[in-house]
Design brief:
Blueprint lengths: L2 H4 L21 H17 L2 H21 L9 H9 L3 H22 L3 H11 L5 H8 L15 H16 L9 H12 L2 H15 L10 H17 L1 H9 L5 H9 L8 H14 L2 H13 L1 H5 L4 H10 L7 H11 L5 H51 L1
Helix pairs in contact: 4-14, 5-10, 6-8, 7-8, 8-9, 8-10, 9-10, 11-12, 11-13, 11-19, 14-15, 15-18
């Protein structure tokens, strides 16, 4: 298959069912490498086998839903297994809605009109984060047809969701990245209020506290945990990165903060979210490790620091075999005890907080000395003036 054919689509089929562009726009410098990667990926990936896998998955979900209506789902190993394999499109919005409601039930029951009240508050008073929200609004999923036009109804819905959340969570207000989380929720759930509660579920119940705070300490702690896990599970790759002075957190920090939005093809991204909403943040570590494992041999062949960073910047979007990636994440990466993850998170967060306090102490000490020097300089200047007089 020629590179030209790889990059062509019919005008009617430029977007998938969620509005994502099927062929991404890349910088010119990336195109040759990207075309080669795409060609290799398509040749190695058996599309007929993938199609058969999708049919099997649909049958399994149909049987499960037949036994347990979507409004009455209950946590179980069977449901966990099904979610890891991905939810078929016709069931996804209902499944996400159930998971979100399960995570936010107590809050929703106490404040049934919460979203409408927050929207009204947003209209009556301007939140300090309102300007930043407006700036980020037009940077949200720009390759998706539902957000590409300034007059898009979904963009207006997203604006209201983010403003409402800024009042819902005053300690955060707004953090760059929340727009992408809310946008994915809106695309799947197709309901403004449901998308708001999905954002609340992610920030307030799934992610650790302080993940989106100004200091981002919990986010930074996760990056240290990820590096430790990579040393254990991908030692050759980590040695390669260390040899070439590559800091993976420059790439992976954003993966975690926005749950891989705009880093994966839409089909794989939504499968990651299916498991993430149900199981929580452990899924992020599993998939981050799986992405590196999937392309480990290719990365090991690159021996230039700049080229490694260039490759890491977009390699995730070249992966098309979602079933293989899922198998690496949930089988090859085992064992993956949650207790170990919690302990490491707690340790690194404590270390980061101590470092932050020390930095603040040094800054205060420096500021104090600077003030003393200014006073002394002023005193010296006055003395010189007196001598002149």
């Amino acid at each position: 298959m020629s590179e030209e054919l790889l990059l062509q689509t019919d005008s009617d089929n430029d977007y998938d069912e969620y509005g994502f562009r099927l062929v991404q726009d890349y910088d010119v410098e990336d195109m040759k490498l990207l075309a080669k990667i795409h060609a290799l990926e398509i040749r190695s990936h058996n599309l007929l086998e993938q199609e058969a896998g999708d049919k099997l998955r649909l049958n399994r979900w149909a049987q499960y839903v037949g036994k347990s209506p979507l409004g009455e789902l209950a946590p179980s190993l069977e449901l966990k297994s099904l979610l890891r394999g991905g939810v078929p499109r016709q069931y996804r919005s209902n499944v996400w809605r159930w998971v979100v409601r399960a995570r936010t039930r107590s809050l929703c029951e106490h404040y049934p009109q919460r979203y409408h009240e927050l929207c009204a508050k947003g209209q009556a008073s301007q939140h300090p984060a309102a300007r930043q929200i407006l700036l980020d609004l037009h940077r949200t999923l720009t390759s998706n047809q539902h957000f590409s036009s300034p007059s898009s109804p979904m963009l207006q819905q997203l604006h209201r969701i983010l403003l409402a959340f800024s009042w819902q969570s005053p300690s955060i207000g707004y953090c760059q990245g929340l727009n992408r989380l809310a946008a994915i929720a809106l695309l799947v759930l197709q309901n403004e209020e449901d998308a708001f509660w999905c954002l609340v579920a992610i920030v307030e119940t799934i992610m650790p506290q302080d993940y989106y705070s100004k200091s981002l300490t919990a986010s930074q702690a996760d990056q240290r945990v990820l590096k430790e896990l990579m040393v254990e599970k991908l030692p050759r790759l980590m040695a390669h990165f260390e040899e070439h002075d590559v800091d993976v957190s420059l790439i992976t920090f954003n993966w975690f903060l926005v749950v891989f939005v705009e880093s994966l093809t839409s089909k794989i991204l939504l499968c990651v979210w299916d498991a993430f909403l149900y199981e929580g943040t452990k899924v992020l570590f599993r998939y981050a490790l799986a992405l590196f494992k999937h392309k480990e041999e290719e990365i090991l062949k690159i021996h230039n620091r700049v080229e490694i960073y260039q490759y890491l910047r977009f390699f995730t979007k070249t992966i098309s075999d979602g079933r293989k990636l899922t198998n690496i994440a949930f089988v090859d990466m085992n064992p993956f005890p949650m207790k170990l993850l919690r302990n490491r998170r707690a340790y690194h967060q404590e270390q980061l907080e101590a470092e932050l306090h020390e930095l603040e102490r040094i800054q205060e000490e420096f500021a104090s000395k600077s003030t003393e020097h200014k006073d002394n300089d002023l005193g010296a200047a006055l003395s010189d003036d007196e001598e002149d007089l």
